[in-house]
Amino acid sequence: MTNIVTQAEVKTILGISGASQDTLIDFHILSAQELLYDILSITDLYSYEITKELTRVYGCSYFYLKAFPVTAIGGVFNSNTHDEITGFSYQFDDLHRSKVFTVDGDGVPDLLRYKDIKVTYTAGYVLGTGEGVAENINIPNSLKTIVAYLVGGLMAENKKMGGITEYSLGTKTVKFASGNHGSEALKLIRPYLVNYKQPIISS
User: Could you count the other beta carbons within 10 Å of the beta carbon of residue 186?
Assistant: First the structure.
């Protein structure tokens, strides 16, 4: 598993100094990452290719995909004839990590006149494989901050501290060391959540 954050990053985000809690932080980082993956319905953040995922278009100039962030479109195909759909370029939405816009040669949004399409694409943050934090990592600070806040909540619960608050992130109820952490995590995670997308057909 690729570590989303380092111990030093968690300590900076949570305002922890000294080394007395380092072992506990390391222990909870893995649990917090597993919780984040569970919330987002993913298994890791490695970059990988998805082949001919079926999704609905409804004649719009955009479509949604299951994985995130979308980094490259390999091909878009008619779901009935399986022919590749050409004549479009694709732009990615920086806010909504799984939303893709179809544009014409001038960069103007253009309608895909289909109900359903199949898309081959690449998604993910980390290139390559291996244990620990990869050198060529490009994980956004928003996900790092969420994991750090989750670590803070796990530590507070472990120490039976007061002031612990609960927030719903997706389908999970998560504990945070403070209300500020919970509300900020909710704001940061919204662009990644499955329930903020339109319905997707199962392939």
Answer: 17
